[in-house]
Protein backbone atom coordinates (compact mmCIF):
# COMPACT_ATOMS: atom_id res chain seq x y z
CA UNK A 1 0.00 0.00 0.00
CA UNK A 2 1.19 3.52 -0.67
CA UNK A 3 0.03 7.10 -0.85
CA UNK A 4 1.46 10.29 -2.28
CA UNK A 5 0.56 13.98 -2.29
CA UNK A 6 1.74 16.89 -4.43
CA UNK A 7 1.24 20.62 -4.03
CA UNK A 8 2.36 23.07 -6.75
CA UNK A 9 2.16 26.85 -7.15
CA UNK A 10 2.55 28.08 -10.75
CA UNK A 11 3.32 31.61 -11.90
CA UNK A 12 3.08 32.58 -15.57
CA UNK A 13 6.34 34.26 -16.64
CA UNK A 14 5.74 34.61 -20.39
CA UNK A 15 3.14 33.57 -22.94
CA UNK A 16 4.18 29.89 -22.90
CA UNK A 17 6.42 29.67 -19.81
CA UNK A 18 5.47 28.95 -16.18
CA UNK A 19 7.74 28.83 -13.16
CA UNK A 20 6.59 26.72 -10.23
CA UNK A 21 7.55 25.52 -6.78
CA UNK A 22 6.36 22.24 -5.35
CA UNK A 23 6.21 19.97 -2.32
CA UNK A 24 5.89 16.19 -2.81
CA UNK A 25 5.32 13.63 -0.06
CA UNK A 26 4.85 9.89 -0.21
CA UNK A 27 4.76 6.85 2.07
CA UNK A 28 5.03 3.14 1.30
CA UNK A 29 3.67 0.60 3.81
CA UNK A 30 5.09 -2.91 4.02
CA UNK A 31 5.89 -5.67 6.54
CA UNK A 32 9.61 -5.00 7.05
CA UNK A 33 10.22 -2.12 7.43
CA UNK A 34 6.67 -1.19 8.30
CA UNK A 35 6.78 2.12 6.37
CA UNK A 36 9.10 4.57 4.61
CA UNK A 37 8.22 8.22 3.94
CA UNK A 38 9.98 10.88 1.91
CA UNK A 39 9.27 14.56 1.28
CA UNK A 40 10.86 16.72 -1.41
CA UNK A 41 10.71 20.40 -2.34
CA UNK A 42 11.96 22.36 -5.31
CA UNK A 43 11.54 24.74 -8.24
CA UNK A 44 10.72 24.02 -11.87
CA UNK A 45 9.81 25.45 -15.25
CA UNK A 46 7.14 24.44 -17.76
CA UNK A 47 7.16 25.34 -21.47
CA UNK A 48 4.10 24.86 -23.68
CA UNK A 49 5.10 24.00 -27.25
CA UNK A 50 1.45 23.62 -28.24
CA UNK A 51 -1.82 23.17 -26.36
CA UNK A 52 -1.19 19.42 -26.50
CA UNK A 53 2.57 19.28 -25.70
CA UNK A 54 4.57 20.58 -22.70
CA UNK A 55 8.16 20.28 -21.50
CA UNK A 56 8.79 20.56 -17.78
CA UNK A 57 12.05 20.46 -15.83
CA UNK A 58 12.58 20.63 -12.10
CA UNK A 59 15.09 20.10 -9.31
CA UNK A 60 14.05 18.57 -5.99
CA UNK A 61 15.75 18.41 -2.62
CA UNK A 62 14.90 15.55 -0.30
CA UNK A 63 14.00 16.54 3.25
CA UNK A 64 14.29 12.94 4.51
CA UNK A 65 16.99 10.28 4.35
CA UNK A 66 15.41 6.98 3.37
CA UNK A 67 18.41 4.88 2.29
CA UNK A 68 22.14 5.08 3.10
CA UNK A 69 24.24 7.17 0.68
CA UNK A 70 21.08 8.78 -0.70
CA UNK A 71 21.67 11.87 -2.81
CA UNK A 72 20.13 15.10 -1.56
CA UNK A 73 19.11 16.48 -4.99
CA UNK A 74 17.42 15.11 -8.09
CA UNK A 75 16.75 16.72 -11.47
CA UNK A 76 13.96 15.58 -13.79
CA UNK A 77 12.67 16.59 -17.22
CA UNK A 78 9.43 15.44 -18.85
CA UNK A 79 7.89 15.83 -22.28
CA UNK A 80 4.11 15.39 -21.87
CA UNK A 81 1.53 15.04 -24.67
CA UNK A 82 -2.16 15.72 -23.98
CA UNK A 83 -5.13 14.47 -25.94
CA UNK A 84 -8.88 14.43 -25.50
Task: Describe the structure in your own words.
The structure is a single chain. The chain is mainly beta and 84 residues long. The chain has one domain (2-81). Helices cover 0% and strands 70% of the residues. The protein has no helices and 5 strands. It is elongated and about 50 Å long. The model has no long low-confidence stretch (mean pLDDT 91).
Secondary structure elements and pairings:
Blueprint lengths: L1 E11 L4 E13 L5 E16 L2 E10 L10 E9 L3
Antiparallel strand pairs: 1-2, 2-3, 3-4, 4-5
Report the average pLDDT across residues.
91
Largest sheet: 5 strands, antiparallel
What general form does the structure show? elongated
How many domains? The number is 1
N→C terminal distance: 31 Å
Judged by helices, strands and strand pairing, the structural class is mainly beta
Work out the radius of gyration: 16 Å
**How would you spell out the order of helices and strands?**
EEEEE
Count the DSSP helices: 0
**Can you list the strand order of the major beta sheet?**
1-2-3-4-5
**What's the β-strand tally?**
5
Helix content: under 10%
Amino acid sequence: MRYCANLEWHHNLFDRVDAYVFVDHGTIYSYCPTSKSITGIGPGFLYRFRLWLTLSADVARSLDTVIPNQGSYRADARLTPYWK
